[in-house]
Every structure is written in C-alpha cells, then in structure tokens.
Backbone:
C-alpha cells in the first residue's frame, strides 16, 4: 500500500483495538509464531471480508502505548523450532527470515513489510497482509490457523468459521468470473462504454495499450493470449446493453412506483436497468427522484416542489444497495420500491453487520472488487 503513511498507521492504532485482523506486538521474533499469526489474521480478514490484516510491532496490545521495537524483518534470520518442539532449544538459523515465511505460507499472498522510524519518536514495523486475491484459506506448513481469544488454533476446530471463510470466496469469485471470453479490443469497445470509463475517471489516454492496461488493473478485463476476457465485474458495471450479458441482466436494479401505499396497488412505473450499473447510475437516480412524492413549499411567496426524500439520501442508499448485494444468491435483484408514504431499498442477502451495530461498527464490504470500482467512480466511499 503506497499510501500507508505514518499518519495512516497512527490513525489505525488510535481507532482500532487488537482484534481478529489486527495484532500488536513489542519484539516478537518467533518465526513459526509469526507465520501462524499471518495465517490466522489473514483468514480472519477473509471471513470478515476485509481486504487486509495487520501485524504491528512496537505497540502494547492492551494500552496501545507506542513503545517502539528492535525487531527487523530484513536483517533477521528465521528462528526454527527443533523437531522435538522444545522452544528453549530454538536458535537462529542462517535462513533469511522473510524468505522462510514466503516459502512456508500458502497460497502465496502479498505480504508488505513497512518500517517507520519516527512515530511519536519510536520505531515501528508493520506487516500488511493483503488477501484481496485469495481463493482459499491461508496455511502455515499445511495447517490453517484462526484466532480463538488470545490463542492461535487450527481452523478445522471451528467448522462455522471455516464455512464462513469458504462462503466469502463465492461472491468474490462471481465478480472475477468471465462474462465473455476471447474477445478483441474492438469487441470490448462495442460491449462496454469505454468512453464513459475514460471520461468519468478523467483519463487523458491516447494509446490503446494504455487503456487496456487500465482496464486490466481495474479487473474489468483479463488478458488471454492475443485476445481478452471480460469479467462479470466489467460487464455488470460498464455494459452498454445488458442484453449482451443475459445472466447479468437478471441482477440489474428494478425500480417500481406503486399508486398507493401497498404492493397490491397498481404499479404506475416499473423499469429494469438495461445498462451497466455504473453507466446507468445517474439515470437510476433521475428515475427515482421523478417518481417519489413531493410537497409544495411557498417560502418567500415562490412555489417550490420539495422531495420528501432528499436526493443525497436516495443516492447513498442506492449505492449501498448495489455494493452490498450477495451475488451467491440467484433469482433476486436489487430493488427500489416507491410508495406514497415511503421508499424501500432491498437487495439479495443479509447484512454482514448486525443491524443494531450499523452506527458504531467498522464498515465491511461484501464485494471488494465491486466496491473498489464504485469508489473509483466516486459512487461509494471505498
């Protein structure tokens, strides 16, 4: 993370207590124990749909006092436990510490070590465990670990947590599956609104190769030899016509306006999105605002129609309805139902966070890639 600065680190320490995805240590240098923490923290991040977990040296675990650390991952050698398991006989080997970790953690994940030499006058070390592209639990020497209180335990002792981890892969897998394969770049321009893409994110790109590289980095397309594959994420967000992707059209937003206050009342407007949800987002807002109830206001002697539901709120709710849907559930789509006395936003799935904790719980994203792309287009705060 290039933007993980000392200020970001300090804010993380101040705002987040030790948890299943954050661990504070002073001078931990037991290589095997660190590997187990990587597995457990990473698996917790996967289960909670967090893109990253953190192991931080130089901070007390309860008080969060910044005390500094002497631990240096770059110069340390691996401390390997002898075969008899006696920790008293553990000694430094000649094996580089980071190399040992990279060879014994599977699958291969992005581990980023950062050193901060002056955080409140102290030296800190941070390991950022990036799980955004992982499709299986993280193992150390073939064993998957998880946090249980302050202990590290094998994941297979907690079947519910194991089930939750595997379920979390399903939604992300959907985003990165292919909507169309073996297409040329002209095909991509015919199927996806590339001009909208460039215009919205303020890209001043002339060369085709640069556009392609940007689309690949945003997980919209994947290079496949001399051709390309369009991901579900790319088609769902940027399609010019969803009829080109029938399996995704069933997941576009449906907007219905009822004549009264009940579903049994006649529907005076009923429309299903026919473009990618990013391309069509503004039109959806316009259609919702056109059909919500308004009240007359004569302040200052001038008649104004005031919407009963502010556009800012409608926009926020629609964006979250799209971003947090559960793609593992078929036969359902995001819906906006407008009645004379209320408006209802709904999507497939149940909340990742207990509704009673919505206000004080850290945000979680069910669909990381979709949330990142919506954030890039300034539809949500990613």
Residues:
């Amino acid at each position: 993370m290039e933007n993980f600065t000392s200020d970001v680190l300090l804010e993380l320490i101040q705002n987040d207590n030790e948890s299943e995805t954050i661990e504070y240590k002073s001078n931990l240098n037991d290589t095997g124990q660190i590997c187990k923490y990587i597995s457990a923290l990473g698996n917790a991040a996967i289960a909670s749909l967090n893109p990253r977990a953190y192991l931080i040296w130089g901070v007390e675990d309860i008080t969060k006092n910044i005390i500094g650390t002497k631990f240096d991952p770059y110069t340390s050698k691996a401390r390997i436990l002898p075969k008899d398991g006696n920790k008293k006989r553990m000694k430094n080997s000649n094996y580089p510490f980071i190399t040992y970790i990279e060879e014994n953690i599977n699958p291969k994940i992005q581990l980023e070590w950062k050193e901060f030499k002056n955080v409140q006058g102290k030296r800190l070390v941070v390991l950022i465990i990036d799980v955004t592209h992982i499709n299986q639990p993280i193992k150390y020497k073939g064993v998957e670990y998880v946090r249980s209180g302050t202990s590290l335990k094998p994941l297979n002792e907690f079947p519910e947590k194991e089930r939750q981890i595997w379920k979390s892969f399903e939604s992300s897998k959907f985003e990165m599956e292919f909507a169309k394969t073996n297409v040329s770049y002209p095909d991509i321009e015919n199927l996806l609104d590339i001009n909208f893409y460039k215009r919205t994110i303020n890209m001043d790109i002339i060369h085709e190769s640069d556009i392609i590289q940007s689309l690949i980095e945003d997980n919209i397309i994947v290079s496949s030899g001399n051709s390309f594959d369009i991901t579900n994420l790319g088609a769902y967000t940027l399609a010019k016509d969803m009829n080109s992707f029938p399996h995704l059209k069933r997941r576009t937003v449906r907007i219905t306006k009822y004549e009264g206050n009940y579903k049994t009342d006649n529907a005076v407007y009923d429309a299903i999105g026919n473009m990618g949800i990013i391309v069509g987002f503004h039109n959806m807002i316009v259609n919702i605002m056109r059909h919500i109830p308004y009240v007359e206001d004569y302040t200052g002697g001038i008649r104004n129609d005031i919407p009963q539901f502010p556009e800012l709120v409608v926009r926020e709710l629609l964006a979250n309805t799209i971003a947090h849907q559960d793609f593992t559930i078929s036969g359902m789509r995001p819906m906006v139902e407008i009645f004379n006395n209320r408006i209802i936003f709904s999507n497939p799935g149940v909340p990742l966070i207990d509704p009673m904790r919505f206000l004080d719980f850290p945000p979680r994203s069910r669909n990381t890639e979709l949330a990142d792309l919506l954030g890039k287009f300034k539809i949500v705060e990613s």
